[in-house]
Amino acid sequence: MDVQPGIGRRAAIALPVVVIVAVSGFVLKAAGGFEMPLSIALNRHHHGVLGALGDLLYHVVGPVGAIIGTAVITAVLLLVTRRWTTAATFAVTIAGSWLSVAVVKLLVHRPRPDAAQLPLPYHPVQVDASYPSGHMAFVTAVVMTTLLMMPPGAWRRLVAVLGAILVGAVALLLTVDAVHYPTDVIASIVWVVAVAPLVHAIWVRAVLPRVGARRDRAEAHAIGRRFGTQEH
């Protein structure tokens, strides 16, 4: 029996998606560069404002930039809300849904689009695995985590619309840069949309109550000793 309401339901959605995305990666790798013509066509637009935005995105939202950005937002949440649980929930949900993509990436190890065939390739040429896209996963994780932590209402609907536009824009820029095949980007979006709610539910409904309870008891004990009100 699922003693943590919501976890089982979200796992029932996430786990099949995880399997499908992982298996699809091996299938796509075995199929070779069948998407190369589409990547070439998209890469022809890798110039001007679109090209500059794509290059900036890929440079800034790398692993280091993503970690720093997450740390900064987490610190701001802590300062504004004065609640470590809120800040920790934000950081953990992003980390779990974003970094889990790296496991699939290492296992599948799909080659990047061949830069030698691209009319306007991104520099420096990327040589690590391509599927799924870590950049796309991070941006989608930020949007999903924000939505998961917002109460239902008009503001949440607005953020959902703006988030969808942001995810779509990032997907376009990454495929125009041709640092990823379109399916690399799609796989990341599907993965995070399915996995983020599960990570959030496990943390909030299973882990946090235990961690929070222990911390609350420790803080109460410390305050009691400080003011001489601790019961014996």
From TrEMBL:
<feature type="transmembrane region" description="Helical">
    <location>
        <begin position="87"/>
        <end position="109"/>
    </location>
</feature>
<feature type="transmembrane region" description="Helical">
    <location>
        <begin position="56"/>
        <end position="80"/>
    </location>
</feature>
<feature type="transmembrane region" description="Helical">
    <location>
        <begin position="12"/>
        <end position="36"/>
    </location>
</feature>
<protein>
    <submittedName>
        <fullName>Phosphatase PAP2 family protein</fullName>
    </submittedName>
</protein>
<dbReference type="InterPro" id="IPR036938">
    <property type="entry name" value="PAP2/HPO_sf"/>
</dbReference>
<keyword id="KW-0812">Transmembrane</keyword>
<feature type="transmembrane region" description="Helical">
    <location>
        <begin position="129"/>
        <end position="151"/>
    </location>
</feature>
<dbReference type="Pfam" id="PF01569">
    <property type="entry name" value="PAP2"/>
</dbReference>
<dbReference type="InterPro" id="IPR000326">
    <property type="entry name" value="PAP2/HPO"/>
</dbReference>
<keyword id="KW-1133">Transmembrane helix</keyword>
<keyword id="KW-0472">Membrane</keyword>
<feature type="domain" description="Phosphatidic acid phosphatase type 2/haloperoxidase">
    <location>
        <begin position="85"/>
        <end position="200"/>
    </location>
</feature>
<feature type="transmembrane region" description="Helical">
    <location>
        <begin position="158"/>
        <end position="179"/>
    </location>
</feature>
<feature type="transmembrane region" description="Helical">
    <location>
        <begin position="185"/>
        <end position="208"/>
    </location>
</feature>
